[in-house]
Amino acid sequence: MQTPRRIQGSNAGRSRSHNKRLVLGHIQAKGEMGRAEIARASGLTTQAVSNIIADLEGDGMLVTRGHRSEGRGLPALQYAVNPVGGFALGIEVRPDAILSALLDLEGATRHTGRAALPDTHPATVADLVRQLRDEASRAVPDSEGRILGAGIVMPGPFGPTGLSGLSGTTTDLKGWRNMNARELFQEALDLPVEVENDANAAALAERISGAARGMESYAYLYFGAGLGLGIVSGGQLISGAFGNAGEIGHIPVPSPDGPAPLETLASRAALRTQLDIGADDLDIAALEALFARSDPALTGWMDQAAGALGHAALLIENILDPQTIILGGAMPEALLDGLIARIALPEASISNRPDNPHPRLIRGTCGRLTATMGAAALILNVAFTPQLASVA
Asked: Strands, E, within the chain: which ranges?
């Protein structure tokens, strides 16, 4: 089995920011660590680790957690991430509403908010996002001056593409075609900003506080307006050249009527068509009730979606070689479990191997606000994961 590439520290002074993220990431993943253990894991000298720990303690991002024996000598002082040492703001922009979440450094949700969106003009959106930031700061006084940045989640794909004009592919945000969203939100919030689509953000939410915690390489199939794919490899989100990696919903898969786009068979839109109901009636509670009584139309859609998702899973496995594929998004947990039970994963896959401790397909655990939490997780991921490009 090939060993995944491990990011190492650099003892050069110019890599201080990289090394701080590296050390913080190791401690966050392990829970608590001593200096010698951090040095071994990061490839840094013990002196370099000591200097970085001093910086992180000064920033309020680390706390001590007593001593633990690590072999010969005196028990080593243990360090852990200080939950209130920093916060991440997550913003999800939908066509009709804006959702927010404030997470602490441990990924715990400290506050959530929602604002109805009367129109999608950029100035309107920026003003409401500002209000949600201020509301979160008032609700969590510890976050004052400690918000590390804001993750912004918006519908994709981004920019004009060959998918433009196809059903279900527009962003539904009028006035945003030529808008630089990052600059707009940075100016509105006076914070560092990361902008992603919903599937990518949801994938990171699962890594920070969900089913992918401790994983480095996995895929996330996300039920949003359509069906998206978030890809994490080596702890890094794969966004593509223009931020549109993972538009798997438009890939054709077999169907009884011939090849069809995946999301016409396996998505909330496809389910709405199958049930013949409006978008306003397709909420979580309604789906839970339909599933509980084994509604024939819902069961028929699940059987159809399971076949399509089985083909998609094989494609994902053989191209990306993930530790697992996570299924989640705006669906009831019981329904997702039922889908997973129906999906027949082909044996002829590189992921069908006895030495992988993870199931090939699992359900996400971040719940209904996965994309909103994922927006905040974009910021936490930056704090805990140094970029490979920054390694000398």
From this structure: 62-68, 76-81, 87-93, 97-104, 109-116, 147-154, 193-197, 218-223, 227-233, 236-237, 252-253, 260-261, 325-329, 361-363
Do 96 and 117 touch, CB atoms closer than 8 A? yes
Tokens of 167: 């059903």
Residue with tokens 């028990």: 75
Share of the chain above pLDDT 70, in %: 88
Sheet with 227-233: list strands edge to edge.
236-237, 227-233, 218-223, 325-329, 361-363
Radius of gyration (Cα) for the chain, nearest Å? 22
DSSP annotation of 204: H
In the chain, the amino acid numbered 278 is G
Closest Cα to residue 305, out of 337, 247, 263? Answer: 263
Q: What is the pLDDT of residues 281-291, one digit of tens each?
A: 678 888 999 99
Q: In what order do the strands lie in the sheet with 87-93?
A: 109-116, 97-104, 87-93, 147-154, 193-197
Residue 186 makes CB contacts below 8 A (sequence gap 6+) with 192, 193
| HEC-encoded secondary structure of 320-382 | HCCCCEEEEECCCHHHHHHHHHHCCCCCCCCCCCCCCCCCCEEECCCCCCHHHHHHHHHHHHH
Token output for 159: 């920019």
The token duo for 349 is 């896959």
pLDDT at 171: 44
Domains identified in the chain and CATH numbers: 13-81 (1.10.10.10), 86-204+373-384 (3.30.420.40), 214-365 (3.30.420.40)
Check if the beta carbon of residue 272 is closer than 8 Å to that of residue 356: no
**Confidence band (pLDDT; 50, 70, 90) for 392?**
very low
Task: Enumerate residues 6+ apart whose C-beta is below 8 A from 324.
Answer: 212, 215, 218, 219, 356, 358, 359, 360, 361, 362
- Which position has the token pair 């680390």? 62
